[in-house]
Hints:
The protein is of the alpha+beta class. It has one domain (28-131). 25% of the residues lie in helices and 30% in strands. The strands form two sheets. Strands 3, 4, 5, 6 and 7 form a five-stranded mixed β-sheet that branches. Strands 1-2-8 form a three-stranded antiparallel β-sheet, with no helix packed on it. Strand 1 (29-35) and strand 2 form a beta hairpin. The longest helix is centred in the first third of the chain and has 24 residues, at 2-25. It is globular and about 40 Å long.
Amino acid sequence: xxTLTMTxxxxxxxxxxxxxxxxxxxxxxxxxxxxxxxxVRTVVPPAAFPNEGRDNFYKVTNGATGQLGIAAVxxxxxxxxxxxxxxxxxxxxxxxxxxxLTSEQAVLSAQNAGMVTVTRNxxxxxxxxxxx
Length: 132
């Protein structure tokens, strides 16, 4: 009986260690994006999060050299929700030479001028806090 109890206990410990170890081994990633014409840092959590996009984020698919993602809000903005990004794909129209877009206003101006197409991409929503 004692051997059976120890075997079950050992199996439970191994199962717990194997399932928890990847979470502790994962480290956050860091990156950069544009917010109102300035490059800001981001922290990418080491775990998946459900689609909860609330703040506009623009991913340019065929932009100019040096193009980064574009955040519409950041800490200090009244509408910032901690980096729960609602993703929009921005694509320069084929007859347009891409320019660097560094703010939500620049994206919307380019859209109004017919330079880019902006498409909602709910499947790409993600969590990624901004650091100012």
